[in-house]
Amino acid sequence: MERIADYITFIKNGEIVFSKRKDDVFSEYALVRGGLDELNGGIESKFIGIRKTGVGFEALTKEKQGLPSSLIMEKPSLEDIMFFYEKASN
Length: 90
Known about the structure:
Elements: E1 7-12, E2 15-21, H1 22-28, E3 30-35, E4 47-52, E5 56-61, E6 72-74, H2 78-88
Antiparallel strand pairs: 1-2, 3-5, 3-6, 4-5
């Protein structure tokens, strides 16, 4: 879908989360990775959803500014965005 779609509409629980051009969606979000020790100072409030493991975390954010420079930030896939929005409600 990422290769052929021009626009993406994401619907969760019957409500539209976003409906935007594909390129705008991918530039708006970032997949963030880091160690568990970096989850301090209210940083988790900047995440839409988070997945923690024994050694680190992975999260989705729209707030790219103000995060520690030690975190790894990557372009998320559409699957990443959908996963973390679903995880946010759990």
